[in-house]
Amino acid sequence: MSSMNVQQLLAQMRVMEAQASMKPAAMTGLESGVSETGFSDALKNSIESVNEASKVSSRLAEAFEKGNPDISVAELMINMEKASVSFQAMTQVRNRLLSAYQDIMNMPV
Fold it and tell me: What DSSP line would sit under 43-92, residue for residue?
């Protein structure tokens, strides 16, 4: 894996960290010109992100199997792990949402 890929990965991690630490616009009192992302949009975007990571991993694996010299084993393994971890995280979120839904449905009215 080249140093450029490491720098790109670190930059992506910093961006995700900044996004995770930001408060929603309604809580920070920002003007109404800022568009708010709904829960369904955020969920849809995260699912698409997981799907894209899986596709990239599959393409890299296929290219590596065909003997592409530009793809190292380390790069392939990192991409495969990123896809796996993102899928596992999405599965856990789904499980938590399902559990919360079941708890709400079982509440006495």
Answer: HHHHHHHHHHHHHHHHHHHHHHHTT-TT--HHHHHHHHHHHHHHHHHHHH
Residue type for 1, please?
M
Smallest CA-to-CA distance from 86 within 7, 12, 25, 35 is with 12
pLDDT digits (tens, 9 = 90+) for 47-60: 999 999 999 999 99
d(CA 27, CA 66): 51
**Would you give the DSSP letter of residue 106?**
T
What are the pLDDT digits (tens) for 13-53?
Answer: 777 777 777 755 544 444 555 556 788 888 888 899 999 99
CA atoms in the 13 A half-sphere facing the CB of 10: 6
Q: What is the pTM of this model?
A: 0.60
Alpha-carbon gap, residue 24 to 36, rounded angstroms:
8
- Rounded Cα gap, residues 55 and 42, in angstroms: 20
Q: How far apart are CA 38 and CA 46, in angstroms?
A: 12
